[in-house]
Design a protein that fits this description.
The chain contains eight helices and ten strands. The chain is an alpha/beta fold.
């Protein structure tokens, strides 16, 4: 049986808006298992990204506890959280945020060098990962403004996984891509999940959600639906889509 990689107890996140407290996440108890591809869905304003940032240590909760394995992280200082994220988490966002003045290869290595020392082995790992996600060698010395959106996002994924994170967080990773580039990126997520990567991904898109093994539906700051699916590719696509669509319709999506 898979063990817990992330767990929350009575997690709350509130914001002050004009002197009025808005409770975005409310008393959330949640367990995410190692090796799962967990997708978080819900209407706009349901707290999807807020939950992702709290789980990943990018934002501190207002109340409650977050456990990463056996480590309780919500009480960490900002510096301690930064060290924790560098050693345990990878991040892929809707906007890639590559460094404009660095080449493709240097962008990937910059993220790795924060954690690891420069070495021939590290450079080879970067090149191997770039090749695996379809970034040909002739692009390695190009700059971000010379890339397509799909190429940039694939490089962003390599940068996120080069340190072999225990968990990969993604926030609408295909949101700015056309359908062909979006499919390429989703294929990469499916591949790295098959290789054992734990993933937590926020999306509003059905095609993206179909890649998950678990879909959580948020409403009013809490999980109101929890839908399990086999790993992508082990179930007929039509049946998988019908099952997830039925669940989302039941949730009011």
């Amino acid at each position: 049986m898979a063990s817990s990689i992330l767990r929350t107890e009575k997690l709350c996140k509130s914001f002050s808006n004009g002197g009025v407290q808005q409770h975005v996440i409310k008393n959330l108890d949640l367990t995410i298992l190692e090796g799962d591809f967990t997708v978080i869905m819900g209407a706009s304003g349901s707290g999807k990204s807020t939950l992702l940032y709290a789980l990943s240590g990018m934002d501190k909760p207002s109340m409650g506890k977050i456990f990463f394995g056996d480590r309780e992280i919500q009480g960490y200082s900002n510096d301690e959280l930064a060290v924790f994220r560098r050693g345990n988490c990878g991040f892929v966002f809707q906007s890639v945020y590559l460094l404009d003045n660095q080449t493709v290869l240097d962008n990937v290595l910059t993220g790795a060098l924060i954690v690891q020392k420069h070495s021939p082995e590290l450079v080879e790992r970067a090149k191997e990962l770039l090749t695996k996600v379809g970034i040909a060698q002739e692009l390695w010395n190009k700059y971000p403004n010379q890339l397509s959106g799909g190429e940039a996002q694939r490089i962003g994924i390599v940068r996120a996984i080069i340190n072999d994170p225990k968990i990969l967080f993604a926030d609408e990773p295909t949101g700015q891509l056309n359908s062909a580039s979006g499919k390429d990126v989703l294929d990469i997520f499916s591949e790295i999940h098959r290789n054992g990567q734990s993933i937590v991904l926020v999306t509003h898109d059905l095609k993206t959600a179909l890649r998950g093994t678990r879909v959580l539906y948020l409403r009013d700051g809490g999980v109101v639906g929890d839908h399990r699916m086999p790993p992508y590719g082990e179930e007929e696509e039509k049946a998988r889509r019908a099952s997830l669509t039925s669940f989302l319709e039941e949730m009011g999506w």
